[in-house]
Amino acid sequence: MRRFLLLMPVALLLAAVVVMLATEYVVARPSRRAKDVAYLPATAPGFDKERHILDVYSPKKKAPTAGGYPVVLFIHGGSWTSGSKNIYTFIGRRLAKQGVVVVVINYRLAPPVHVPEQAADCARALAWTVQNITSYGGDPARVFVMGHSAGGGLAALLATDDALLAANGLPQNPVRGAIMDDPAGLDMYSYLKEMKYEGDQQYLVPFGNDPAVWKDQSPIYKIRPGIPPFLFYIGGETYPSISGSSGRFRDRLKAIGQPAPYTVIPGRHHIPMVLQLYWQNNIIYKGLLKMVGA
Predict the structure, then answer these.
(1) Which residues is 73 bridged to in the sheet?
(2) In what helix (H) or strand (E) does residue 35 lie, and over which residues does it extend?
(3) Residue 167 DSSP code
(4) Cis peptide bond upstream of 240, omega within 30
(5) Can you say how many angstroms the Cα of residue 163 is from the centroid of all Cα atoms in its chain?
(6) What is the DSSP-derived secondary structure letter of residue 30?
(7) CATH assignment of 32-292, given 3.40.50.1820, 3.30.70.20, 3.30.420.40, 3.40.50.970?
(8) Which residue numbers delimit the BD-FAE-like domain (predicted)?
(9) How far is the C-alpha of 203 from the C-alpha of 191, rounded, in Å?
(10) Backbone phi and psi for residue 277, each to the nearest 5 degrees, phi listed first
(11) Residues 77-108 pLDDT 10s
């Protein structure tokens, strides 16, 4: 009996793995994945064959409109020092199944680069998307950005910093909307000036020591009339710095006459805010699909 009880957790784990693999197979069938596509030429200065790449997930069925499917460019988190597009295949698969072309990108990490270089990488990936997404069934006139944690802050920069985009191949901002999933980095200027939490010194690695850079890389100071609409999802149990800066960002949007839907999901911590995207019918996808018109 004791041996049977010891084997039960193993059996349950194996059963769970089988169910997950079966689920992934079913989800993957309606979509195709183009893996490790370089968004910079190999001859470009500083080209990194591991980080200057992206994956494209697209529905197998032809788009119902001549222009193509809406497009979401997803930027991963990881405190600006870690993370990989390869972790987020489930986001690409689930959204492609629901009529969205998804671009999941890598970008260089700190160290040795800092956030301005990371933002430039994201802008270059966005430029590649606008120039090439038609070949994958996407509509370059309907490109949206999405990010979790540090990726949320980088996505917000793409939506608000026209100068960043112009310096990286986009004379006009193509972003039609931004989906914020528990975003970090919206106001690193205030955060790094205060240094009120244990371990805050670690963020000087990606942001450096210059307060002018902190402010320049904080999207909250780039809010102005005419920027794309934002959609916020915040964990009810997330870090105070994330809920605080997101709330201030929302208030500034409201002040310029651009209210942003702002949903707090009770009981959710920071990491589960992205893990919930494994399930196709979660609340974030529902709001996203409505925003992009899928």
Answers:
(1) 103, 145
(2) strand 31-38
(3) T
(4) no
(5) 20
(6) T
(7) 3.40.50.1820
(8) 54-234
(9) 10
(10) -70, -5
(11) 999 999 999 999 999 999 999 999 999 999 99
